[in-house]
Design brief:
Layout: H1 2-17, H2 20-23, H3 30-38, H4 50-75, H5 92-101, H6 104-107, H7 112-123
Helix pairs in contact: 4-7
């Protein structure tokens, strides 16, 4: 019992004393995302790869964030950065081609969400 309490206390103190950067994973750059995505074949079996699943999860999270930004802008009466339809059709080749066209030095400074936001603005611009 005392060992268990000591272990819980040690873990708690380590977590409290650790700097926030050590607890949070740094965001991946768009360049790292694109580099990894370029290595994965675009075929039916690609999603069986753990790396492809991680990329898809990261892409889905970026789209979720962007969707929230669009909804928030509309709710506030502002024009959002992109105006996609309710359901979008995603062609991975077209998306990857767009992301690869962004110069590498710029991709190295962008987050994955920034890259997807740029694609959405290009693909689904808002009418004035």
């Amino acid at each position: 019992m005392i060992r268990r309490i000591a272990l819980i206390l040690a873990v708690s103190l380590a977590a409290v004393g650790a700097p926030p950067a050590a607890l949070a994973q740094p965001a991946r750059t768009l360049d790292a995302f694109v580099t990894e995505a370029n290595r994965i074949p675009l075929n039916a079996t690609a999603m069986l790869r753990p790396s492809a699943r991680r990329l898809a999860d990261e892409a889905n999270e970026s789209f979720r964030v962007i969707g929230g930004e669009i909804r928030a802008a509309r709710a506030a009466g502002r024009t959002p950065a992109a105006c996609p339809p309710d359901k979008i059709s995603l062609n991975p080749r077209q998306l990857l081609t767009f992301l690869n066209a962004i110069p590498q030095p710029r991709r190295a400074r962008m987050s994955v969400t920034d890259g997807f936001r740029a694609w959405m603005a290009d693909r689904y611009p808002c009418r004035a």
